[in-house]
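Work Package 4 report. The design task specified in the project plan requires that, given a folded chain encoded as structure tokens, an amino acid be chosen for each position. We show below one input record used in the internal validation round.
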């Protein structure tokens, strides 16, 4: 009787395709197959003894003549040269009015402008996120 119960509970069999162990469960006259043939970890080949190449950044140009006459770093192709700079009159006026420094604070902006409300919204989101950091909603 115990032999029959042990056979019914589980039988160890090997899979024909992968040769991995498979459990056959025959309880309640239903045949269920549980497979435990997890994927094997792939061994990394060629890692031992290889020296990793250090990536180098782009070369920094320090030539003042080239910096004032060419748009250094604007070339998007692997080969070729940087485009030369044009006279100031050929560029649009708004290009020279851009704020390249730190962003203006709310106190420096006028309340009737779009930039004022964009900065107010951003600061409000920062404040809200800082207050609710770590809290569950």
């Amino acid at each position: 009787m115990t032999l029959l119960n042990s056979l019914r509970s589980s039988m160890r069999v090997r899979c024909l395709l992968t040769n991995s162990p498979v459990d056959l469960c025959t309880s309640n006259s239903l045949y269920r197959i549980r497979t435990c043939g997890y994927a094997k970890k792939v061994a990394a080949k060629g890692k031992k003894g290889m020296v990793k190449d250090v990536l180098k950044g782009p070369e920094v140009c320090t030539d003042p003549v080239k910096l004032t006459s060419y748009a250094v770093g604007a070339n998007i192709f692997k080969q070729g040269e940087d485009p030369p700079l044009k006279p100031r009159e050929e560029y649009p006026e708004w290009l020279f009015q851009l704020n390249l420094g730190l962003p203006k604070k709310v106190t420096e902006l006028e309340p009737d402008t779009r930039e004022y409300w964009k900065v107010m919204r951003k600061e409000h989101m920062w404040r809200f996120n800082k207050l609710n950091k770590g809290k569950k909603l």
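Strands lie at 11-14, 21-25, 32-35. Validation will be extended to a larger panel in the next phase.
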